[in-house]
Amino acid sequence: AHIYTILINCFCHLKQTALGFSVLATMLKLGEEPDTVTLTTLVNGLCVEGKVEDAHKLFVEMAAMGYQPNNFTYGAIINGLCKRAKPDAAIACLREMEAACLELNSIHYSTIIDCLCKVGLVNDALKLCSEMTSKGIKMDTITYNILIDGLCLSGREREVGFLLEQMMRSEIYPNQYTFTVIVNAYCKDGRTEEVERVINSMVQRGLEPNIVTYNSLIDGYVLKNQMGKAQEVFHLMIEKSCSPNVITYSSLIHGYCKVKMIKEALSLFKEMVNAGLRPN
RNA sequence: CUGCGAAGCACA
Description:
With about 280 residues, the chain is an all-alpha fold. It is built from 16 helices and no strands.
């Protein structure tokens, strides 16, 4: 089942769950028994494609056939519901796990906390944080990243410092996501001057800016119509062997169009295609 | 004993 599951998981990540199911059919024909991992992989595939109802059907079926849904299966369903912005249903799922005496972990909580933040319910998200902590489930770097991003999205950036302190005190360390979330918040807020300081402290911790960090900064300059600055970052990233992607080019092209520098925009478009990137 | 067979975070 192992090797088949790997294949199924590949199809699921390509959003080709239907092909994943045909692999399952092949398994059955060959007399190879799927296991809980195989079926959970398919549940996740359906969730990733946004077909949470189908995922739930499979979830019920697998339970009926004696494949007990576990932490991972519930995790996939919760994630599916969260990606469809259904925090209430996701929380109901969490309660169902409790009733089934399954052990909740930081992934289950973080998934829902992220969803609440993204729909603007940061206070509910913070409540869930207290709940998980009171159950002895530790917030990890991802949980903090989610909250920091959530606070920024809700214009509550002033509370981020407190969160970072709490993070360090708990010996949970920031990673590239953490810093990039902060860089992005500053950029969206037009505070590109403060980004250099953030990137310095990032590098001091041995963390290099990555493509998302650079893209955020480029877009920050684009927002302010500072195309010269944007171009500088573009060159800097290339110098650091960080290859621009479609997002990088889209930002820059948008920026040049905004300031009516159409030639530059078009030449970037060509450059992008020449680099083997497909316009979307 | 360890290792990527399954679930959570950032950019246009």
